[in-house]
Amino acid sequence: MLNRRHLIAGLTLSLTLSASPMAALAQEKLPVVASFSVLGDFVREIGGDRVSVTTLVGPNGDAHVYSPTPADAKSMAAAKLIVVNGLKFEGWMTRLIKSSGAKATVATATTGITPLQLKEDDDHAKAGHDHGHEDPHAWQSVANAKLYIANIRDALGAADPAGKPVYDANATTYLAQLDQVDGEIKAAVARIPADRRKAITSHDAFGYFIKAYGIEFIAPQGVSTEAEASAKDVARIIRQVKAQKIPAVFLENITNPRLIEQIARETGAKIGGQLFSDALSDAKGPAGTYIAMMRYNITQIEKALGAGPA
């Protein structure tokens, strides 16, 4: 009886030990670093339970002026995949990759997107800030977001071939959701009178939205919040708001409201609320995911621009 008990115990221990590495392997997640919150959301949507995502520039954070931390360097060094926006949006990323010793594959989410070219007289370009001559805010068009998803899907599949069927299926589901949101935005814009489809925002983050949906946004700052708007630019916009009877100005979640409040005060234009441009809100906010952000923004825009004067 004793020998039998020892045999059973030995077999149980042997099976447990042999199963442990397989269980650990099954539970191990692909470590991915995303440069900012929109990309972090995309990676989570496509990666699901197979990925562990670290987002460097978190909710309501401004990637234009971000300073990486030692914790960021540690996350980069441990990552198997790094997802960046590209178009020189993350001016600090090259230095961080080098200083962290990261060996991960770097996937550029904007691959295949035709970038909007900045005007040569853009104040941001004059100030010498390094975004090149291309607008990096490509995610503001849902059609572009679909290309982001395709690039992220392919990068995850290459980094984790066993998970490719999962990533492909998740991407197919998410792309259908993006199509629905795109239709909702177009329908909302169609309800806004054509002569009221213009507004003021803090910085020039909505160029792709303008091209895709036909709402004109005018901003005192260039494509980066690094560049302070000049008094000349603010005065020009105040004159433009008055001359064109622009109905609303919008705050942004990543910028100081002072400038927009000044423009509203001096023109009588109403503050139409807050838009989310370069970052999502936290999970408890109204724009905790990309889809929630796009729906929230168009709701704010339609409320502010849709109704004419009483």
TrEMBL record:
Q: Name one GO molecular function term.
A: metal ion binding
Per the UniProt record, the source organism is: Bosea caraganae
Q: Which PANTHER family match?
A: HIGH-AFFINITY ZINC UPTAKE SYSTEM PROTEIN ZNUA-RELATED, METAL-BINDING PROTEIN HI_0362-RELATED
Annotated signal sequence range:
1-26
Which UniProt keyword terms apply here?
Answer: Metal-binding, Signal, Transport
Q: InterPro entries of this UniProt entry?
A: AdhesinB (IPR006129), Bact_metal-bind_prot9 (IPR050492), Lipoprotein_PsaA-like (IPR006128), ZnuA-like (IPR006127)
Q: Where are the transmembrane segments?
A: none
One GO cellular component term, please give it: cell envelope
Gene3D superfamilies (UniProt xref) = Nitrogenase molybdenum iron protein domain (3.40.50.1980)
Q: Which domain of life is it from?
A: Bacteria
Name the record gives this protein: Metal ABC transporter substrate-binding protein
